[in-house]
Design a protein that fits this description.
By secondary structure, the chain is α/β, with parallel strands linked by helices. The chain has 3 domains: 1-115, no CATH class; 132-235, Rossmann fold; 263-346, Orthogonal Bundle (Arc Repressor Mutant, subunit A), CATH 1.10.10.10. The protein contains 14 helices and 11 strands. The strands form 3 sheets. It has a 4-stranded parallel sheet, sandwiched between helices. A 4-stranded parallel sheet has the order 6-5-7-8, sandwiched between helices. A 3-stranded antiparallel sheet has the order 9-11-10.
């Protein structure tokens, strides 16, 4: 007998229909009427929200297999404003499935996809293709989701795109494209310490670099004040989806505590087969080094790294550096009461 997912569906549906700004009846030429982004990939959501806030475009969050029909209905509703709605999709085919895009196109929607194989590539692609007039750039460590909101606040204040660093470096695609696609770029704002000293020196040779603390408020706030400025970022579809997922997960974890669910059961509808293989290997062992996963799953090292990063983004697993590799653990919420020790713990 199938499990009852009504509470989860209700929460996700409610979350998916919130938008940062109302769609305008007559959008400017060449502008998108809506942005669709995967609601549980927060790196992509942050990039989409930055552009949505900049251009006053509503952002619709998609959870594949959960709210596809509702999102399609919302997009088709734009036809009352424009005979051929124009929609921007953020994320590659693993994030927003191609079947979903084809479904929109078959109903007369013009879809433009902006996505790369990783969150780093997606951010660079959106930046270079859509922010050509930007004079400021926000750089944040793409492996630290807790810094996405501070980056979004600075992005909103300075009308600036967001790009992600990894292991202290900007993507090679940034250096290859910035001079051509960002001709007006003058200043780069670093959230925390996302770059190594060598990379910082390289960046400083071409641009004015400003480093800010993640807890530091933007130096200039909109006239409506700090509280409402913060609320306009926080009360958005991504946070609503995050809250919905958290509430749904808490509900399901309560069921698990009564012996009816396992972590894999809880997430069956949210993980691809590849993600499930990685998550299963981590959960079943309590902790595992990342370098063991290629052997256990049959996946290549780059594929394992990508899948691990996605699961960390969603708050499902955690990792700590150990020598030349990482130790992976299930997120704390899955270990409540289980007492799985970490490296260095008794």
């Amino acid at each position: 007998m199938p499990r009852n997912r009504t509470p989860l569906l209700a929460l996700l549906l409610a979350a998916s229909i919130l938008t940062p700004a109302a769609a305008r009846a007559q959008p400017a030429a060449g502008q998108f009427e809506a942005i669709v982004v995967r609601g549980d990939i927060y790196a992509d959501w942050t990039v989409a929200m930055a552009y949505g806030l900049h251009r006053d475009i509503p952002v619709i969050t998609l959870i594949p297999g959960i709210n596809d029909d509702e999102v399609v209905s919302m997009v088709l509703g734009l036809a009352s404003f424009d005979e051929t709605p124009r929609v921007m999709v953020v994320g590659d085919r693993r994030a927003v499935p191609e079947d979903f895009v084809i479904r929109l196109e078959s109903q007369g929607v013009a879809v433009s996809r902006f996505g790369g194989p990783t969150r780093f590539d997606t951010a660079i692609y959106v930046t270079t293709q859509l922010w050509g007039d930007a004079d400021t750039l926000i750089v944040v460590d793409g492996t630290r989701p807790e810094l996405y909101f501070p980056a979004l606040l600075w992005s909103r204040q300075h009308s600036a795109p967001i790009v992600y660093s990894s292991e202290g470096r900007l993507p090679d695609s940034f250096w290859a494209s910035a001079g051509t696609y960002l001709p007006n770029l003058e200043r780069v704002i670093l959230i925390g310490d996302p770059l190594s000293e060598d990379e910082l020196s390289r960046l400083s040779s071409s641009y004015q670099v400003v480093r800010v603390s993640p807890t530091e408020a933007p130096t200039e706030w909109p006239r409506r004040g700090r509280l409402s400025a913060l609320a306009s970022v926080l009360l958005t579809p991504g946070t609503a989806v995050g809250a919905a997922l958290g509430a749904a997960l808490a509900y399901l974890l309560a069921s698990r505590a009564r012996g009816r669910e396992t972590p894999l059961d809880l997430l069956e509808g949210f993980l691809t087969a590849d993600e499930r293989a990685i998550f299963s290997a981590v959960v079943e062992r309590g902790q595992i080094t990342q370098d063991r996963l290629p052997e256990l799953t049959g996946f290549s090292k780059p594929k394992v790294s990508r899948l691990v990063a996605e699961l960390i983004d969603r708050g499902l697993i955690e990792r700590e550096r150990m020598g030349k590799t990482y130790v992976l653990y299930p997120a704390k919420i899955f270990k409540a009461g289980e007492g799985s020790p970490r490296v260095g713990e008794g």
